[in-house]
Amino acid sequence: MRLHYKLIILICSLLIVVIVLFELIFQSMLQNNLKHEMGVRALAVAQTISNMPEIKEAFYTANPSQIIQPITEEIRKKTKAEFIVVGNRDEIRYSHPITERIGKKMVGGDNALVFQGKEIVSESIGSLGRSLRGKAPVFDGKGEVIGVVSVGFLTEDIEKKIEHYRQKLLYITVFIILGGIGGALLIAYSVKKAIFGLEPREIAHLYQEKQAILESIHEGIIAINQKGIVTMANAASLKLLGVSNAEGKHLVDILPRSRLLNVVETGHAEFDQESIIGDNVVVVNRIPIYNNQNQISGAVASFRNKSELKRLTEELSHIKKYAEGLRAQTHEYSNKLHTISGLIQLESYQEVIDFITKESDVTQNLMHFIMKKIPDPIVGGLLLGKFSRANELKVELEIEEDSTFADIPSSINRDSLVTIIGNLIDNAMEAVIGNKSGQKKVKVFLTDLGEDLIIEVEDTGKGIDKEYEEHIFEIGFTTKKDSKNSGFGLALVQQAVTQMQGYIIFSENEYGGTTFTVAIPKRCKE
Fold it and tell me: What range does the domain containing 386 cover?
């Protein structure tokens, strides 16, 4: 059964139950009140008659009924009582609506308390049927009880009044039920519209899907309502924010400088905006959330650590650099082949042999050195690529002869190692290229002796100004004029070193350039 039908049935059923209970309680209260009212009225009339001097004096006459009957009948008609009976101590009637019953014994058996001088209201069956009676004693001049006055209203009359009210209440009940059904229909279809016509199981399925998607993506996602209260934050966002729970808190308490509240106010989306969260630079997208009335009800932001994006970019950059190295090597060998071709055409065969031998020796020596000292194929391949790139840039790249990198534990992340060595060499080559005067040389020293892997890269550039020393490892910091794709190399190096529980230092060398030294423990501490 669909949700809106269930709501209609539930609301109508609840309404009917409430109305039935109300009607039963109302009827019970009405019956009690009417009986109480009639009882008080009957007793008041009985009290009035019992205190009348004519009534008291009539008890001492030869025929009391001749005096009492006319008086009580007149009062009975005026008060609309069913009966007024006056009796003596022997319960012999002196008055009765039916004249033939005068002189006979009273019926009901509830006069005992009255003869003790008490006034009572009782319900009993008399000669006219079940009635509600008010009874009062008649006292003589000495205070002795000489008789009783009984005024009664038939309970049948009370039931007729209750039935009259019940019919009116029935009309009201029908009207309320019809109104309730209309209200139930309105509520059911309003709920249906509010939840876009979805059934509970469909909503539950969508919620589970949403949670799975939010928790599986690497981007942080956070949503707020119109008041700035966080309504949703996935695990990635909590990790980046450094909190365990964000829902229910105000956005300002978590992200004081966030522009997400501005999006709620203006309704303008923002895409690919850089922002700072803690020590991280993130790329943020912010969009407003609209309700059914096309009004802004909140906003959602997605953000990703820019350093992660840069790491991916850097990995792609390594591949690009390998390709550039191969291209440079191809270009270099193409020139050498042209040289050999020219010498052959000039029939300078000995020069050809000497040239080939020399080039072969250089290449073989380099290959032999790297294979022997640095057998790791990833690091070795990186260095060969850097040599080709250095030749193309006319930079002298040298690996110190006593370098050795043969004992690299398998636990050491090769990608991080490539990031560190590659960025340090690239940074050094850029430094010497920028130095228009002086020798353009980059020296690399690698060693795995001891407990740490040591990486040392020195250049003959201009060095680092004192004012910049505190900022060179910051994300996005650079001293280049064209800084569009700069300012991330050394930051990525420091991040990689930190992740591997190592450290990095730099100092000015004897050439006036900079020497970077990295130490990475072979066995990370738990």
Answer: 310-521
